């Protein structure tokens, strides 16, 4: 084992396989005009579920980042070893901040989607009552 292999495994553990891009699924009705789009409550529920899945991944990544930071120790007692580990710690701290930011963004976005879903269901219910 060498440090390059260890670093590659750590990156893959946190970010997964970055060599295989995935096509995103687009939800919602088309139609354009005004820069908006519409989704049914069921579509919103699906999108919320996808974001909740992403949130779980980000939380898991945060746990892996924490474990990586706990394992960073200099291989020796010399200045070069300490400097090397300090640089690694700085990088891991930046990674943790970015992970925390992603987590907060996703949590906020899920909350907005939940509000939109609740409003859409209320509107649908009101429209149903008007037509009956």
TrEMBL record:
Protein name: PE domain-containing protein
Organism: Amycolatopsis speibonae
């Amino acid at each position: 084992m060498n440090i390059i292999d260890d670093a590659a495994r750590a990156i893959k553990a946190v970010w997964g396989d970055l060599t295989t891009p995935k096509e995103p699924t687009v939800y919602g009705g088309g139609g354009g005009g005004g820069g908006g789009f519409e989704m049914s409550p069921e579509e919103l529920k699906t999108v919320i579920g996808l974001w909740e899945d992403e949130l779980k991944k980000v939380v898991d990544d945060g746990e892996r980042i924490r474990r990586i930071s706990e394992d960073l120790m200099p291989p020796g007692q010399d200045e070069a070893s300490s400097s090397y580990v300090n640089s690694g710690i700085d990088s891991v701290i930046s990674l943790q901040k970015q992970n925390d930011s992603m987590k907060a963004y996703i949590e906020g976005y899920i909350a907005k989607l939940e509000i939109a879903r609740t409003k859409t269901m209320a509107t649908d219910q009101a429209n149903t009552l008007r037509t009956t």
